[in-house]
UniProtKB/TrEMBL annotation:
<dbReference type="Pfam" id="PF01709">
    <property type="entry name" value="Transcrip_reg"/>
</dbReference>
<dbReference type="InterPro" id="IPR002876">
    <property type="entry name" value="Transcrip_reg_TACO1-like"/>
</dbReference>
<dbReference type="InterPro" id="IPR029072">
    <property type="entry name" value="YebC-like"/>
</dbReference>
<dbReference type="Pfam" id="PF20772">
    <property type="entry name" value="TACO1_YebC_N"/>
</dbReference>
<dbReference type="InterPro" id="IPR026564">
    <property type="entry name" value="Transcrip_reg_TACO1-like_dom3"/>
</dbReference>
<dbReference type="GO" id="GO:0005739">
    <property type="term" value="C:mitochondrion"/>
</dbReference>
<feature type="domain" description="TACO1/YebC-like second and third">
    <location>
        <begin position="112"/>
        <end position="259"/>
    </location>
</feature>
<feature type="domain" description="TACO1/YebC-like N-terminal">
    <location>
        <begin position="27"/>
        <end position="98"/>
    </location>
</feature>
<dbReference type="InterPro" id="IPR048300">
    <property type="entry name" value="TACO1_YebC-like_2nd/3rd_dom"/>
</dbReference>
<dbReference type="InterPro" id="IPR017856">
    <property type="entry name" value="Integrase-like_N"/>
</dbReference>
<dbReference type="InterPro" id="IPR049083">
    <property type="entry name" value="TACO1_YebC_N"/>
</dbReference>
<comment type="similarity">
    <text>Belongs to the TACO1 family.</text>
</comment>
<protein>
    <recommendedName>
        <fullName>Transcriptional regulatory protein</fullName>
    </recommendedName>
</protein>
């Protein structure tokens, strides 16, 4: 190899090396970016889930103060444990404490797909319903007819309470509290009783149970699916986008339930 060819070879070898190094660095940057985006998405889903649960607990117990609401306090501690930013946590608690109005639900359904039960608190029912329907249409989700909804879900309030008594005594107290049913269950706090009551109005029973010297552990209004629906991975991604969009844009929403398997 003569001197001229050697210079030519050295020049283009260096160019090739630099290009290879550039693309290797670019590939590494893409991998880091993809990993960060995946982690951010996972954190967003987790934080949204915690936010839903906090709103639901405050709504169902009627107590938005974590200093007096043990269940809410536990969720606050969990949020801190998974490194939810303090500003995010503060914003969620402020939203919960500033909510006013009555609790409502709006059943919705994806065309030939799963159904959703959207819980919200407002004193401007028409306005919020319109906003929910408007956003939902963009995701091909429309209001569900009442007859279909009642077929697909069984809705009730469930109150878990403890008292040193027998199931027979709890049944007598259930009648006094106007509960529809009661059963004895094992709870993480120990043996408890699970009372069933009017949907969206657990306070009607919790107040009476409190007067009967029960310790209220939790109160939850929920819709249990009678019919479930399977979805594809792509559909689930779109559903999660829908839930994130609608709960971000409509502050009155406290939780969303569905019948997805």
């Amino acid at each position: 190899m003569n001197f001229r060819n050697l210079l030519f070879y050295t020049k283009y070898r260096n160019i090739l090396f630099q290009e290879t190094k550039h693309y290797a660095g670019h590939s590494k940057w893409k991998n880091i970016k993809a990993t960060k985006e995946a982690n951010d998405a996972a954190r967003s889903v987790l934080f949204n889930s915690i936010s839903y649960r906090m709103k639901a607990v405050a709504l169902e117990t009627g107590d938005p103060d974590p200093y007096t609401n043990i269940k809410l306090a536990n969720l606050v501690e969990y949020a801190k444990k998974v490194n939810m930013p303090a500003s995010t946590l503060k914003g969620i608690l402020e939203k919960i404490q500033n909510k006013t109005g009555e609790t409502h639900i709006l059943p919705m359904r994806l065309l030939k797909g799963p159904a959703f039960v959207i819980y919200f608190v407002t004193d401007k029912l028409t306005h919020v319903k319109f906003h929910i329907v408007h956003i939902s249409k963009k995701f091909n989700i429309k209001p569900l007819e009442s007859s279909t909804f009642l077929h697909m879900f069984e809705c009730a309030s469930f109150i878990i309470a403890s008292k040193d008594c027998t199931l027979e005594k709890a049944m007598e107290d259930a009648i006094k509290a106007n509960a529809e049913d009661v059963e004895e269950i094992e709870h993480e706090t120990g043996p408890c009783f699970k009372f069933k009551g009017e949907f969206l109005h657990p306070e009607k029973i919790t107040t009476k149970l409190g007067n009967l010297e029960y310790t209220i552990i939790s109160a939850d209004s929920t819709c249990i699916p009678n019919v479930t629906t399977e979805v594809t991975e792509e559909e689930l991604l779109n559903i999660n986008k829908y839930k994130k969009k609608i709960t971000t844009d409509i502050r009155e929403i406290v939780k969303i339930e569905d019948n997805i398997v």
